[in-house]
Amino acid sequence: DRGGVPNNAGAVMLNVTAVSPGAAGFLTVFPCGTEMPLASSVNYGPGDVVANAVLAKIGTGGKVCIYSPAATDIVADVTGYIPAGSLFGTVVPSRLLDTRSGPNDLTVDGSFQGNGRRSAGTTLQLTVTGRGGVPNNAGAVMLNVTAVSPGAAGFLTVFPCGTTMPLASSVNYGPGDVVANAVLAKIGTGGKVCIYSPAATDIVVDVTGYIPAG
């Protein structure tokens, strides 16, 4: 019931900005009334002003919760909403991929975690259906895709596995960056999306929603 969002909305599309954080960290946006997930919506460094588009399922009392491990100002703008019961399915954010190895570098089901930094010029095939609340009949997924400490400037391209890689970029990065972007990705062969990177980098992927096939 704010900014044109009706009371029956099930999810909102937000632009969430961290303004001048005191240290490196992240914002996690999730439905209030649920346990905070292992996921990041915006990644920031000290003094940054950095934003990302976030599809957020609405929780208890018509609210979304925003967690930050570091002190920061936060700005949130709404750009759209999804009515409850819509064909577009929203989920509590869940981590589907983390190439890093560490005690907190975990995925929702233990798959696709700690498999190592991606080499330059390689394509990773990531299973997205049947994980993190995404059903097997999903046709596309809403992802938050993060490049972590790339070795050189470049980009990530997310595309349906089984198709030719397009001339497109989903996330653009510089050396040493931690940068994320919201990506709507069509699901390809075997319930997978492919992620290409021309430079060596770690990659983190969280799912926030899906669209059923057909």
Description:
This protein is an all-beta fold and 214 residues long. Helices cover 0% and strands 50% of the residues. A four-stranded antiparallel β-sheet has the order 7-14-9-12, with no helix packed on it. Strands 8-13-10-11 form a four-stranded antiparallel β-sheet, with no helix packed on it. The protein is globular, with a radius of gyration of 17 Å. It starts with 8 loop residues before the first strand and ends with a strand. The model has no long low-confidence stretch (mean pLDDT 96).
The overall pLDDT, averaged over residues, is 96
Cα-based radius of gyration, to the nearest Å: 17 Å
Q: Give the strand line-up of the largest sheet.
A: 7-14-9-12
Instruction: Please state the structural category.
Output: mainly beta
Q: How far apart lie the N and C ends?
A: 31 Å
Helix tally? 0
Main beta-sheet strand count, sense and barrel state = 4 strands, antiparallel
Principal-axis shape: globular
- Could you spell the SSE succession in H and E letters? EEEEEEEEEEEEEE
- What is the share of helical residues? under 10%
Beta-strand segment tally: 14
Strand content: over 45%
Low-confidence stretches are none
Give the helix/strand layout.
Blueprint: E1 9-19, E2 25-31, E3 42-44, E4 49-57, E5 64-67, E6 73-83, E7 89-98, E8 122-127, E9 138-148, E10 154-160, E11 171-173, E12 178-186, E13 192-197, E14 202-212
Antiparallel strand pairs: 1-4, 1-6, 2-3, 2-5, 7-14, 8-13, 9-12, 9-14, 10-11, 10-13
Briefly characterize the structure:
By secondary structure, the protein is an all-beta fold. It is 0% helix and 50% strand. It has strands at 9-19, 25-31, 42-44, 49-57, 64-67, 73-83, 89-98, 122-127, 138-148, 154-160, 171-173, 178-186, 192-197, 202-212.
